[in-house]
Fold Gfo/Idh/MocA family oxidoreductase.
Amino acid sequence: MGKFKVAVVGLGSIAQIVHLPILKKMDEIDLTAVCDVDESKANVLTKKFNIPRWYEQVDNMIEKEELDAVHICANSHYHFPMSYLALQNDINVFVEKPIALKADDALRLAKLAEEKNLTVMVGMQNRFRDDVQILREFIEKDELGEIFYIKAGWLKKWDRGSLRDWQTKKQQAGGGVMIDLGSQLIDLAMFLTGLPKIKSVRMYDYTINPNLEVEDAALAVLQTESGMSVTIEVSWRMHMDHDMIYTHIFGKKGAAYLNPLRINKELHNNLVNVTPMITETNKDRYKQAYRNEISHFYRVLEGVEKNMSSAMDAYYITRIIDALYESADTGREVFLS
């Protein structure tokens, strides 16, 4: 098999820090084009990464380039239409989260990809962290017993300048901090526990900054059909001097904690630390997760690995997010059919 002809759409921070440098180091990739409305930014990046062509419009790029895959790194409200256009033109898609702003659109992408025998992979890099893979194996082998409670949070420190304008617009972002940060924690909890069926959800949202159209703090409560409870707390800017990111998993035979990984088990009536040794730092772990994720996408295209972050998985997470916003709007618990 020859090299994959690839383009990147949207040249923001995730493209500059993650996608472009990783793709340029992969022997199996021919990075032929980028697309962004900012010509000056595109000129700098095409020179830096030695990329032959720049396009302002994605439809023009798709028409002129013979692409095997496209990486959608544009603002969230472009994810669905750009991904759909790529699939219509028989191009495989790696799209950053969220796959779409609404579950119906996520399902349309999943169905179209299946009809055309194409791959859509969604950028949920937590799934590709080494510590998450280790923890998932512990849970799958019932080392912690039945999981009955997961508590996760992502609380960002006080920083007025950290948001981009489009993130604060409901029509463009689909929501606030819950769809931005909360979706990643929900996906992590679901991935670790085998995508259990959600029975009901409840969300409480808050707008600390009155100038925003969307929530900048929220609490979500998820209940699975098996009885497991999940709580998610998120905020873009709490009155804190440092970020707090955590996931705690409690089972009937043990418990686990992420950031950093720690696993405790009950053995012979004693609490024993059974955490495997991991030498890499948090920073290295996140960088490697992105490399693992993008490399996996191309192993899927080669047919040697199964998609670990599929459009159908993303559709399920988007359904949960939709239900959470319905709960916040109505002030009631929402049941998923």
